[in-house]
Amino acid sequence: MIRTIARKEILANLLSYKFYVVILLAAVLIGTSLFIAARDYQDRLSDYSLIRPKPGEPIAVNPPNPLAIFAKGLDESMARSFEVSPIGITVRAGQKSANAVFAFFPTPDFLYVVRVVLSLVALLFGFDQISREKEGGTLRLMLANPASRGSVLLGKWLGNFASLAVPFLLVSALGIAVLSLDPAIRFSADQSLRLALIVALTLVYIAFFLSLGILVSALTRRASSSLVILLFVWALLVFVLPNLGTLAARQLVDVPSVRALSEKRQQVWTREILLRIRGEGDWASHVKTISAENDALEADYRVKFDRLVALSKNINRISPVASFVYAATEIAGTGIGEEGAFKQEVVRYKNGLIDRTLASPDARVADYPAFRYAYRPLDRVLASGALFDVAWLTACGILFFALSYLAFIRYDVR
Known about the structure:
The chain is an all-alpha fold. It is 72% helix and 3% strand. The protein is elongated and about 95 Å long.
């Protein structure tokens, strides 16, 4: 019976104009986002080839991540040029496209389309599954047959999920195949696995919103009422709650501004230079002092900033949409945790260069090691928070489906 109802839902979708309109819209948006993001990645890759430091230059630059095509996250922040000096680390220009239009219309990556558009599409598939059937009288006829309400609900969910998942997977596979034809875009085996996990996580995200749509449909008597409620809930989950944590955390955690931190570094530099001019201590001791105090300032700032980020993420996770974004970006290597690990590596690189310079003042500049950053392994990414976000998103989807079942078994079909 479950299979029969699922087949009936798939056939009904295939015969509905709504199915082709929303699927075509999603396909066009996904294809467009992949094309624009791929061009943006190629432009930033060209920028990297120009600003990549020569041997011996104390500059840390990370090449753009190809997975940023799908989940851009903080990749532009990680792809900036970090210049190392005794006064500290100076952040230079990032790898941005020369097209100024992107300043007004940011690149809509794959993650954005999924987060905003596909969530709405999933709600459109689920908002009238119960209430519309009641209004049309078909729900009473369906339950008059030897079919339990649980079988009816599960069959409807599976049929609509398949109607969403299959076109999405086909469009995504086609987009990835087209991208793989570009010689400038290459995915390693690890990156291919991460991309597969992002696509699988997207299916969980779609399932969550489909369950939410069916839940509201089982709680209302009219499809129009269900649609209005779901549009409000969708805006709340996608736009309002994911930004609420950031606003609240800023009021609770005091983090010094980047400008104040820079001025404090300049004060340390000026003080040590004046001491050197007065003949107090040698140059090496002053350099070590500057480096140590700058590291202490950076460490204090990072502790407060990490506290702000942790509080903000915990509040934002009220909405499973935030968990989806956090998990997808961390898996792609463009998340907050990856950026923090990258900046710690830049600090270690700076300290290593200073120690090496003081130990061997006569060493050739060309002998200094170049900066290399290795992204955190996938198991470490999952253990540091991404797995929790995946579990939370999955649990919310299961919970909403369970609540749908409880509402449906009490639903008056008359």
